[in-house]
Amino acid sequence: MAGSIKDQVAIIGVGCTKFGDNFDQSFEDLLVEAGFAAFADARIEPERVEAAWLGTFSPYAGNGKASVSLADALRMYGKPITRVENYCATGTDAFRNAAMAVASGMYDVALVAGAEKLKDRPMRGLGWEGGHPYQHDGVTAPGVFALSANRYFHRFGGGRESLAKVSVKNHHNGSMNPKAHFQMEVSEEQVLKSPIVAWPFGLFDCCPTTDGAAAAVICRADMARQFRDDYVLVKGLGLAVTSGRPWYDSANEYVGFAATRAASEQAYRMAGIGNPVAEIDLAEVHDCFTWTEISNYEDLGFCRKGEGTHFIGEGRSALSGDLPVNPSGGLKSFGHPIGASGVRMIYEVVTQLRGQAGARQVRDAELGLVHNLGGPGSVACVIVLGRP
Amino acid sequence: MAGSIKDQVAIIGVGCTKFGDNFDQSFEDLLVEAGFAAFADARIEPERVEAAWLGTFSPYAGNGKASVSLADALRMYGKPITRVENYCATGTDAFRNAAMAVASGMYDVALVAGAEKLKDRPMRGLGWEGGHPYQHDGVTAPGVFALSANRYFHRFGGGRESLAKVSVKNHHNGSMNPKAHFQMEVSEEQVLKSPIVAWPFGLFDCCPTTDGAAAAVICRADMARQFRDDYVLVKGLGLAVTSGRPWYDSANEYVGFAATRAASEQAYRMAGIGNPVAEIDLAEVHDCFTWTEISNYEDLGFCRKGEGTHFIGEGRSALSGDLPVNPSGGLKSFGHPIGASGVRMIYEVVTQLRGQAGARQVRDAELGLVHNLGGPGSVACVIVLGRP
């Protein structure tokens, strides 16, 4: 029976690069920018960091490496640095491992960084890297998620109009975010008229191919006030892995993600959350495709299965709604450099909980959720963060 | 200042496949064999395992995947599985992360697995994968380590005869190990006459290209006796990363590995070891090349820098010596499926500490050391294990 490290670990600093087509930055340049931004935000001397975790899916792109790139970027030599990779949940799982290490008593202060250069490599966003299991089975990421979206609409109704509302909302939020890849509004008409990538997904239903990095400095909760009063506490952690061949699983109903349900159950149990939609004030969730966000509402327990199209349609996940989702702009608008995304979501939730999100600030934000979904819907990581 | 989790985590079961040219086993087949062997050894129902860590460097070879392959192999669905990658220290770092997670109180029982299919991929053992930093700089693994070996002999004397003694010792030990890739003795003459790969390394100075997997079940130390009386405790953990470009570092004297020195200092501090050569009863160290083992003697503090050739020459690291090194046969004879190696070393040390190593048993083994060295000598992980 899993235990709990609730309230034992604090986030005292966060940093994030501008996300986008960062052709002028190497993998290590991205780590320098995000890492030192997090150190400055934590008001900490880099030497005080005792260990680090790097979340990266494809480190060799952009002439980068794995753990040694973080050492070279931050001149952090002779210390422990672990690379974690867990598909699109890479960044959140790196954070989870770092948090458990601090909670164990091994380290007082640790760094988590996530980084990816996707623009310098053959992967072109809508396919996947050579040798990736999707390609083994002749299926691309949009194709896999589109199969589920079609099945979902067949069973519960709804269609491309609901998807478009997610895109419009996330682009609206991203238009207020100076670090987002895309800072532009889109209309429902634009989304619906965009070229089809894999039915029912058009171009504006898919997250872009993006470079970026983000970082967070964490420490033992009882030390946090040494650094800043508005630190953020780790309330819940969950990670769940299901089959890597979901399309061969006859129990898979193709209308959502068991990994997200299992990971959120773990995180809610640790955080003591009984009614997520009432207790959580904002959520950064994995909108790799617009339909994924609709499924996430349901799998995370914000509404019942099949009601996600109403959740978006009624504006409940808008900035002005009762549970704003992806106030940052989401993967759709902020971009999705794989290993960076989870840490970038933590950056956004911390910024919101501190009340520093400017035009996209969620009112009275006290408890926030971060969610990544990876592989063919097989890996999910959920983190709940809260004010002390 | 780093803390300690000494004596908080126990190893209650270990498993290991035969290492070799396992063309008839997929990546997942290897995980099935090692994982269920570890469950049986721990006398535990697989359902009791709450979380897992998978150490693998190149999971996509052998038609494998990353975390989802472990889920599918062991039918371990809905639970946390993290993939760790840290060059050749991948297996040991996976173990380190699992141990900290158990020590944190998040999980009572966890699995660590390491696996690699190297025979099914273009990498041919003496080179490295496409896109690897060694190839960026036009340097292969034997080439990098050979540069250091030559510099070392230039400064301290010695030569291929000392290297051959390491190969002869490790092949001798491996000849008594039914799971080793090579179970054959070699003579000094054979080693010295083998074709040169990168001077001073001949073919018998280089570890082979191997498939294999190993696994360990760990739990909270205070629960260990529920499973077996002869459990093994985690005494020390250390991980250190240095520059990924050591050949551009003017402070690098090219006669050893700062990462190993830093990682062993961390592990010895946690374990309370002041005099390693007197206190440690056996060591499994990273002999990717014969010279690496000689340098490891020094970097791990078994003797002073420059005295490693005497350490092997005087038979101190032989099975009958005062600190037997690589009783398993080492990477040289057992093989080196990258992510599996560190966990396989843990398997050997646990087997030795339990007194179950048969013909290669080290007498009165109470404290054992595991050491991996990865990247261009840039990443080292050291684990100290002991009887309760």
Strand adjacency order, main sheet of chain A: 3-2-4-7-1-8-11-10-9
Helix content of chain A: 25-40%
Number of strands of chain A: 11
Number of domains of chain A: 2
Oligomer: homodimer
Tell me the distance between the termini of chain A: 26 Å
The CATH architecture of the largest domain in chain A is 3-Layer(aba) Sandwich
Query: What composes the largest sheet of chain A?
Result: 9 strands, mixed
Q: What is the CATH homology-level superfamily of the largest domain in chain A?
A: Thiolase/Chalcone synthase
Description:
The structure is a homodimer of 388-residue chains. Chain A has 388 residues and is an alpha/beta fold. The first copy, chain A, folds into two domains: 9-123 and 211-226, Peroxisomal Thiolase, Chain A, domain 1 (3-Layer(aba) Sandwich), CATH 3.40.47.10; 137-203 and 232-386, Thiolase/Chalcone synthase (Peroxisomal Thiolase, Chain A, domain 1, 3-Layer(aba) Sandwich), CATH 3.40.47.10. Chain A has helices spanning 27-42, 67-74, 90-104, 133-136, 141-156, 160-174, 188-193, 258-271, 276-279, 290-299, 308-313, 330-334, 338-353; strands spanning 9-16, 51-55, 81-85, 109-116, 196-198, 201-202, 212-220, 232-241, 282-284, 367-374, 379-386. In chain A, the strands form two sheets. A nine-stranded mixed β-sheet of chain A has the order 3-2-4-7-1-8-11-10-9, with helices on both faces. In chain A, strand 2, helix 2 and strand 3 form a beta-alpha-beta unit. The longest helix of chain A has 16 residues, at 27-42. Chain A starts with 8 loop residues before the first strand and ends with a strand. At the A-B interface, helix 2, strand 3, helix 3, strand 8 and helix 8 of A face helix 2, strand 3, helix 3, strand 8 and helix 8 of B. Strand 3 (81-85) of chain A pairs antiparallel with strand 3 (81-85) of chain B.
